[in-house]
């Protein structure tokens, strides 16, 4: 089993804008995690699935659709709302932490996006789940950006990465439309061989890209053994 979790967040400025006793904000925390392994070599299609198609364009479209559809298996998201957050407040998530990704096997690659948004409008209905992104109107224009996925070694992982880019784009649009303020944005890309060779990693007080939040996170994994 493998888990990626946020242990705590420190928010320096809640972006609410009010002073004194009324300086409390509703913060929305969004996470989007993409993972992959060395066995992610392509979509689960056989040659027979492609031979009945009329031309190369149709075959590429079929492979692309399969790769992006399966990308959801490699991507997980989480959304959490916290009310009454003050400046310089540390948010704790209990002994178990806020689990943002889990899987049966330890992934070889891991990419994490974490958004902290001060919300002046209700955006709780906005979903980051891969299947919701794939069904959105905005995703229809993504074909050109993801088309290269069929030409590389891991089209499924490429599809997951493309969905992650769409999450970023949609959240930015939502921020502009609702006039919400970005309190923090943290991202990291990790490779097991280099960053968590034994499935474990623990970091404290990691600054985000804005310098406004600090993140404590833990990766914890163990391989299942087969008993004789």
Structure description:
The longest helix is centred in the last third of the chain and has 24 residues. α2 packs across α5. The strands form two sheets. Strands 1, 4, 5, 8 and 9 form a five-stranded antiparallel beta sheet that branches. Strands 3-2-6-7 form a four-stranded antiparallel beta sheet. The chain is an alpha+beta fold. The chain has one domain.
Question: Would you summarize the structure shown here?
Answer:
It is built from 6 helices and 9 strands, in the order ββααββββαααβαββ.
Search tags:
single chain; 228 residues; alpha+beta; five-stranded antiparallel sheet; four-stranded antiparallel sheet; 6 helices; 9 strands; 25% helix
**Count of individual domains:** 1
Spell out the helices and strands N to C: EEHHEEEEHHHEHEE
Q: Rg, please?
A: 20 Å
From the spread of the alpha carbons, the general shape counts as flat
**Poorly predicted sequence stretches spanning 5 or more consecutive residues:** none
The residue-averaged pLDDT reads 77
Counting DSSP H or I runs of 4 or more residues, the number of helices is 6
Q: What is the topological layout?
A:
Blueprint: E1 2-11, E2 25-36, H1 48-51, H2 56-71, E3 75-85, E4 89-92, E5 98-103, E6 109-118, H3 130-135, H4 143-146, H5 155-178, E7 181-191, H6 192-195, E8 201-207, E9 213-221
Antiparallel strand pairs: 1-4, 1-5, 1-9, 2-3, 2-6, 6-7, 8-9
Helix pairs in contact: 2-5
């Amino acid at each position: 089993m493998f888990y990626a979790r946020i242990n705590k967040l420190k928010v320096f400025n809640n972006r609410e804008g009010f002073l004194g006793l009324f300086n409390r904000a509703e913060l929305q925390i969004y996470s989007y995690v993409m993972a992959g392994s060395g066995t992610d070599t392509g979509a689960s299609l056989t040659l027979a699935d492609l031979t009945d198609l009329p031309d190369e364009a149709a075959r590429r479209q079929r492979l692309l659709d399969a790769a992006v559809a399966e990308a959801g298996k490699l991507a997980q998201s989480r959304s959490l709302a916290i009310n009454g957050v003050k400046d310089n407040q540390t948010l704790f998530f209990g002994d178990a932490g806020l689990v943002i990704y889990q899987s049966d096997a330890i992934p070889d690659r891991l990419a994490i996006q974490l958004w902290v948004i001060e919300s002046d409008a209700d955006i709780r209905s906005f979903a980051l789940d891969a299947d919701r992104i794939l069904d959105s109107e905005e995703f229809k224009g993504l074909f050109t950006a993801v088309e290269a996925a069929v030409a590389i070694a891991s089209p499924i992982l490429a599809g997951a990465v493309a969905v992650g880019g769409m999450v970023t784009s949609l959240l930015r649009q939502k921020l502009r439309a609702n006039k919400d303020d970005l309190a923090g944005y943290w991202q990291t890309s990790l490779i097991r061989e280099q960053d968590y060779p034994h499935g474990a990693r623990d970091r404290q007080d990691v600054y985000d890209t804005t310098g406004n939040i600090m993140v404590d996170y833990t990766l914890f994994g163990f391989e299942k053994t087969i008993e004789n």
